[in-house]
């Protein structure tokens, strides 16, 4: 049964996401400002070509389907605007190299930087340096450790992913107080993994359940398969599994198939095309997945353009781009998979 707290969360999250999405689109009507005002303007002309701006973009290596989608979506979004000159640094998982890339953007005096840091804490100082140089930084996905390091932070809702997954599982097996719930996390040292697990535990607690078995992988296919094999050996009976990541989910499902287990339902995470096609088929233990938007860097490109051109979100009364935007984490199941499948990424 869906609890009151979980219901409120899902409604408020959906409303918040709607506001953000609406803000990124061009409104049919808008507020007006005094022509003498030299500050940002909130108008319906955001899509019109303005002064050309140079945006530096740096992200981790695309060694993961979701990260590949992040990079390609950002590049595709920039290509839509003739007034964006996008400079793309080579993807890397080396924080020191990424720091040098950002320093290069600073030396080139770009107009804005969109940065998905390989490690938020490690990139905080150089991002702060860019901000102090007058270059607005758009922080994507992995947060810096200081609010002074970014003009705008745009995030997926990691805690919300856990809540959504836990709420779905409560709806499916919550009438069994002895249900055995398993969790296959990503990289435990990352704050995003910790947030997902916390949200999951909180949602399960609402219906009187808890995680009985938990393992952590490394967001890879091989890692997912290895830890799931261990999990299945240790737990002869499971009622539901939440796997944090659909890319590592390929390995998770391989281990499940190898073990010949199908007594449980499974919920994925991120929203890959592969996962959605399995959900659509109805021939898998995978019944649902929770969206973690791969549009974050593309949204970051669009926001960087607005900030650099001194514009605002046209559907908000506020005349400046907000400093923090958190995207929604909806559940995709057989009832709504066709809605989300066209924009899903390939693992």
From TrEMBL:
PROSITE patterns: PROKAR_LIPOPROTEIN (PS51257). It holds the Pfam family Peripla_BP_4. It is found in: Cell envelope. Residues 1-22 form the signal peptide. Keywords: Signal. GO terms for molecular function: carbohydrate binding. Residues 55-311 form the Periplasmic binding protein domain. GO terms for cellular component: cell envelope. SUPFAM superfamilies: Periplasmic binding protein-like I. Belongs to the bacterial solute-binding protein 2 family. This is Monosaccharide ABC transporter substrate-binding protein (CUT2 family).
